[in-house]
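Translate sequence into structure tokens.
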Amino acid sequence: MSIDVNNESGTEVDEQAILDIARYALARMRIHALSELSVIVVDADAMEQLHVQWMDLPGPTDVMSFPMDELRPPMKDDEEPPQGLLGDIVLCPEVAKKQGEDAPTQHSMNEELQLLTVHGVLHLLGYDHEEPDEKAEMFGLQAAIVDGWRAEKGMSGPSPAPTVS
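Result follows.
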């Protein structure tokens, strides 16, 4: 799995954890080992520009996903996963910090960035949360992946509650 993490935000973030949780999420979703993903960490101004340009919404957001080859997880256990470019995930640590502080189960900016990385991966794989049933599926899968990764790393406690907008 080729995953690049590029921090352009000026904020110190745990890039290794972002890389590790992205790799874990892709493996858990059975994405081909030769697929490629890019994660870019930007400041609030850059995120706001992207948010306006691509979503026509004001202000910075927490995470944006830009799919490339529209890869999807295999539907059957014996199905070979396709290989390709997953796309880009853009994260904003300033928004992540505020969301972590404001969450019912307060957590760190880095924990929020980990959650947002998984959220971004799921968006790249075609998951969405516009409808209640889609939201339940996506957020349930997101929690299972974050909890599984945290358990594998020996981290205690449940994953942060979803604060993704």
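Note: Helices lie at 15-28, 44-55, 93-102, 109-124, 132-152.
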